[in-house]
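User: My collaborator sent over this chain with a note saying "see what the structure looks like." That's all I know about it. Can you take a look?
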Amino acid sequence: MSDKLSPSLSADGIWHLIRLTWITRAKAQDFWKDLKVPALADLWGKENWALNADLETTIQAMSLPPLVAAAANKPTGFVNSYNKWRNSSRKWCQDNRADLLTIFRDATLLSLNDQSRFALAKKVEKLPGVPPPSGAVGDASPASVLTPLLACLDPHRRFPVINGRKAVQRLLSKLGLANHTVSEQVKGMLGLIGKNGIADCFMLDVLADSVVAFAKKVPKIPASHKKVENGSSLPDFDTEEREAVQQSKTIHYRNRHNKMTGALKNICKGWELKRGTQPHCCYDVLIENYEGTGRDLLLEVKPDPDRGSIRIAIGQLLDYRRFIPHQAGTDLAMLTISRPEQTYRQLLLDLQISPIWFSNDSCKTLAGEGGVWESWKAALGI
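Assistant: Without extra context I'll predict from the sequence alone. Here is the result:
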């Protein structure tokens, strides 16, 4: 569909894109007649189309591009959108066409970095509500109408579906985000992907009721860590990062670092641990097939869980992963001695980096958080 997300896409075309995510349970076997086929006909300019006995022959007669026809013959649609807003959303698409085009184009360009999803969610929450038909009361949330399509357009299948479905609302309530902004809800839902076998946003949507059982309330950021709008004069260099770099050159630091990697080798006797040897990719530890499903684990080792070390580790992990052969199948983790502060553990988790730590300087016991840790812990038999 990305070739159709051009400035020339009409408001009706936008509406039909959204309709491709809909189903109608009352017509579970043939909702394609009312939704899928009319939408495809409009999007590909098929004016003289007609319904045949079944979907396959109907699609064949429409002479759609081969890839589109192949996709259209498969089951599509997963949202039983509330009937009251199905038709009224058409006028809403007309009124907000320019903003919607920008949002959809941005969705097709989403990267692995979830900051782009937070920014996209902010654009969604700025849209006006979708008004109901004349005489009805209450607007529909723009997120409820748009996020199913955004999930489909996301190349990495990560943008969560946030609509009025009861299971989704129960999950948001469990996270403490029921009455929060769309961007806060997206951030909270994204934190669940990669944990407990939740591979992507569609699995999260399907298993929303099950996820409620282990989902935890999203912690509030302490006042001391909240964003400050008014900055100060630009310093020469971040003091904590400078100190972390200087400390990394000391004999004491290297000894602790080596002790950690040695302890890790003892714990991971069933795996081969590799280290980066290229100047541009000098990573600490790479464990291939670390949890038995073909995924690799890239670990950055920092003895101290201080802010400067964590910031440096984030940059190293994101940079190193670009240069390893199995980039798309490599998970990230940071290993420290003692547990980092909660706000920085949350930062790591938001970036899909699992914080893992030795309980103390003896480096005998591992603990951690996040999907990577849960999978690795099971593989280690801890």
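A starting point for your reply to your collaborator: The chain has two domains: 2-22+77-211, 240-380.
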